[in-house]
């Protein structure tokens, strides 16, 4: 199959590596000529160009640019595609992307491979990034079944677990497990930084161990990632944040009132609830 990848970064590059290894012919388009050259030199793609015209022969195109670049990229890309070309994207937020692309290209399937790293760019792309990870597809009523089947088969060939849902359902789910944790973790780091006694703060920084490392990890990432989540998944994220604030208020109340029974019930509930997550 001729596969097009637009945006040769972490996700686009990693897809290209795996799909080329499977024998597909991989055509890559990226913004910078150096990235295209690097992708060719490292054998990540068969051909690469900064010109979207390279996508003319692709049967399936994966749109792998940052979310902010997707709308403009799609406008520039569509005139080059043959009508049978299946277009899919890998964006971490789905409703906005699907709302934008589906009316413009009927053969479009929204997608989100749930794999990643803190770093970005082609340098950190790697083989096998998607193995055993979830790959969410968000077809809507008008999405052709054959297009969904083709993208699902490609995702399965990467050894992903494929899930299907509405774009809005995806965004609400990732708000809970991906976007809210970033804001909670960032708030934890910011709250610690408010400690007025420098001796206490310095000691806390020296004593910090695995618990703080785990809970502060996602809040200590690049600001761009958090801004992307807040900007493109604003409504869903705000709902989860408000629910989280309610939980914090209840915990404060229980501790203020020495209500250890209620606190014990709460922590027993969360201990059991955590086992339901398929990490
Ligand atoms: P990334 O490593 O920064 O890769 C994006 C690449 O797109 C850049 O390396 C850049 O390449 C290229 N690019 C930027 N603007 C472009 C444009 N206008 N036209 C063509 N290429 C352009 O980012 P990523 O982490 O792979 O994320 C890409 C997409 O995957 C995003 O939509 C994100 O939501 C989604 N996603 C990310 C993760 C994650 O954990 N990172 C996980 C799942 C999905 P050059 O400038 O070097 O040419």
Automatic annotation (TrEMBL):
- Give every Prephenate/arogenate dehydrogenase domain span: 1-279
Pfam families attached to this UniProt entry: PDH_C, PDH_N
> Could you give a GO molecular-function term held by this entry?
prephenate dehydrogenase (NAD+) activity
Task: Show the PROSITE patterns listed in the entry.
Answer: PDH_ADH
Q: Which GO terms describe its biological process?
A: tyrosine biosynthetic process
Task: Tell me the superkingdom of the source.
Answer: Bacteria
Keyword terms of this UniProt record: Oxidoreductase
Q: Which family does it belong to?
A: Belongs to the prephenate/arogenate dehydrogenase family.
Q: Read off the PANTHER family from this record.
A: PREPHENATE DEHYDROGENASE, PREPHENATE DEHYDROGENASE [NADP(+)]
The name of this protein is: Prephenate/arogenate dehydrogenase
Species this protein is from? Leptolyngbya sp. NK1-12
Taxonomy, top ranks, is: Bacteria, Bacillati, Cyanobacteriota, Cyanophyceae, Leptolyngbyales
């Amino acid at each position: 199959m001729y596969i097009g990848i637009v945006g040769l970064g972490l996700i686009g590059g990693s897809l290209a590596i795996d799909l080329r290894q499977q024998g597909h012919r991989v055509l890559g388009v990226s913004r910078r000529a150096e990235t295209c050259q690097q992708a060719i030199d490292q054998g990540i793609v068969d051909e690469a160009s900064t010109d979207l015209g390279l996508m003319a022969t692709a049967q399936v195109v994966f749109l792998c640019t940052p979310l902010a670049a997707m709308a403009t990229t799609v406008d520039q890309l569509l005139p080059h595609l043959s009508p049978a070309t299946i277009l899919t994207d890998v964006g971490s937020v789905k409703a906005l992307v699907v709302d934008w692309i589906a009316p413009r290209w009927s053969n479009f399937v929204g997608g989100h491979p749930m794999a990643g790293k803190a770093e970005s760019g082609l340098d950190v792309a790697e083989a096998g990034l998607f193995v055993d990870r979830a790959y969410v597809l968000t077809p809507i009523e008008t999405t052709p079944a054959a297009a969904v089947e083709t993208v699902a088969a490609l995702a399965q060939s990467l050894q992903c677990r494929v899930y299907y849902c509405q774009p809005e359902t995806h965004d609400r789910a990732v708000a809970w497990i991906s976007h809210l944790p970033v804001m909670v973790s960032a708030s934890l780091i910011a709250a610690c930084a408010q400690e007025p006694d420098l001796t206490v703060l310095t000691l806390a920084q020296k004593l910090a161990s695995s618990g703080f490392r785990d809970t502060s990890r996602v809040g200590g990432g690049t600001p761009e990632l958090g801004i992307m989540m807040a900007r493109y998944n604003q409504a869903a994220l705000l709902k989860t944040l408000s629910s989280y604030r309610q939980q914090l208020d209840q915990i404060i109340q229980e501790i203020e009132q020495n209500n250890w029974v209620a606190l014990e019930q709460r922590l027993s509930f969360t201990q059991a609830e955590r086992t339901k997550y398929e990490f």
